[in-house]
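Hi U.,

Before I forget, here's the chain from the pilot set. I'm dumping it here mostly so it's searchable later in email.
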Amino acid sequence: MNLWETTQAVYDSHLLNLCGFDRHHPSNPPSNISRCRRQTISKTMEKVAKDFPDLEPSQIWKNIEKAHITNYISGSITLPNSSLDASGIISYLLNGDTLKVFNSAGQSWKRASGVAWEDFIKTNLFLSNEDVEIKILTPVEMNSLLQGETLKNNNGDPRGLAIPNQDEKSKLEYERFLSKVLNDKNFDLFLVYYVPFTKQWRLFGLIQCKTSIRDRIKINMKSSEEAMSKNLWSIVIAMDSDSFTKSGQYNRAAKESWNGFYVLDNEKAIDESIIYGNLFHIQEAISNHCNQVIETLIMDTQSIHPLWRPKNN
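Structure:
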């Protein structure tokens, strides 16, 4: 099968397994269909990216969008039984109910794809090693830690969040800052590592996950700069920079407004500040850079700042 056929088959199969929805024999969709579609997008990306490692991830993503919309439409409307001429096809497509389904399919993709991309990143970044335990948290999980709940380490021990500043005023400022970060919703994932000496989790990094770097770019730049000023490692993982960062002001922003900028495509690197590559290469680079961040923080808790950059081995 070609890319399109494979993508559609994988998408349909995952959705069927998750919630029993079969577009070829549609029935009333289950109540959890939206959540299942988000999971299906993420799982389809994971499978197809591994099956077609040499293809641009953005090309795979576009085919997943087609598969999602095809599944939604064909599972929502009944196609006419008889053959239609051109006029009949146009009339059918312009029918109010048909247009409504097409519009709903597009909206469904917009709602689901961003969260699915975040889930794909969370699921497919493996950052822990024998020396350090790292977890990638959603905003909900991060907020739970901030509110005093615990997170189990690899040994199953429930541990809380470390507050790096000891005096009460600094502690309150830190907590207010993290609350603001969570409320503003400008970061999608949070990185914590386990500190055996204090038996606590320490927040050290924030991730913005973007399928298109153009979306909310100026807002993301500002929030990243604020995070770096608080000694947090701020990075972007983008699907496709769309040549947006290859020259001009946004090329400069990619180098200055984040500690790391990672683009999941097969372009050759234009400089050491913007990392391009397939899933394996990006995984390897971020894992290496995470270790550098933690090693640097162990030596000096304020050493991660807006000018800090990892070394590319």
